[in-house]
Design brief:
Blueprint: E1 5-7, E2 45-47, E3 53-64, E4 67-78, E5 91-93, E6 96-97, E7 99-100, E8 106-108, E9 125-128, E10 137-140, E11 148-149, E12 157-158, E13 164-167, E14 171-172, E15 176-181, E16 184-189, E17 194-197, H1 199-202, E18 208-224, E19 227-243
Parallel strand pairs: 3-19, 12-19
Antiparallel strand pairs: 1-2, 3-4, 4-8, 5-6, 5-9, 7-8, 9-10, 11-14, 13-17, 15-16, 15-18, 18-19
């Protein structure tokens, strides 16, 4: 049985992607964070234990020095009865190809021609060419709505010894919400707009620059060609923070 691990992908101003190892516990690409960084941001895309594949459409907002950057990106992960990722050929969403990393994780990274990334305003159409035991398929996940979540309202300084409460004004229409400070995370009910981290939970963070994130998400499951696939949508709100 595959291990379920709540971990994510998100894109900040550098618009680059770092890949993690091939094991299920670290199969999601890690988020890039503002340089210099003392504690890298954790991952935030959950992988259900019975999944043969998970495809994520992501809307991400980053606030740094009073500016907000919004982008659309995507992640595709495919297994074949093991905990390792496999190559399933070309993968695209809304006709935009995802790049395959050396560990077989698929990601879409905005570039000069698409600086704000993917547009999910009208559709979320996935296409998988097939391979490694996965037959080719297409799937329209447009019926799954994005959850909503407002910008982070808590302060940009995290004093570890005092604990820290990560908050936003509203979260709605989510199955669950993930709260992240650096590489420390908690998953709570989808309607929650606040989560407190104790001094003990924050003690392992390094002093310096990092990222706080609030990530409401939702998943839907469907069986295609005998495989158990999940399609997810999440909204990632981020804030550059200083850890003391």
């Amino acid at each position: 049985m595959k291990n379920s691990k709540t971990t994510f992908f998100v894109l900040l101003c550098s618009l680059s992607v770092f890949m993690s190892s091939c094991k299920k516990e670290n199969i999601i690409p890690e988020e890039p964070t503002p340089a210099p960084v003392s504690t890298p941001a954790g991952n935030t895309t959950p992988v259900p234990s019975n999944a043969d594949g998970v495809m994520w459409a992501i809307k991400s907002s980053t606030t740094m020095q009073g500016f907000t950057i919004e982008i659309g990106t995507a992640v595709g992960l495919f297994m074949n009865g093991t905990t390792d990722l496999v190559d399933v050929g070309a993968v695209s969403v809304n006709s935009q190809n995802l790049a395959k990393a050396s560990n077989n994780a698929y990601t879409f990274t905005p570039g000069q021609t698409m600086p704000t990334g993917l547009d999910f305003s009208s559709s979320t159409n996935w296409s998988v060419a097939g391979g490694s035991g996965h037959a080719a398929f297409t799937y329209d996940a447009s019926a799954l709505a994005f959850p909503t979540g407002s910008a982070i309202t808590s302060g940009a300084t995290v004093t570890k010894a005092n604990g820290y409460t990560l908050t936003c004004s509203t979260v709605s229409d989510a199955d669950s919400t993930l709260f992240v400070i650096g590489n420390v995370s908690k998953t709570v009910a989808g309607s929650s707009n606040s989560c407190t981290f104790t001094a003990s939970e924050l003690s392992g963070l390094s002093a310096g620059t990092s990222v706080a994130m609030i990530v409401p998400y939702k998943l839907m499951q469907t069986t295609i060609n005998g495989k158990n696939y999940y399609f997810g949508k999440e909204r990632v709100n981020q804030l550059a923070v200083t850890i003391e």
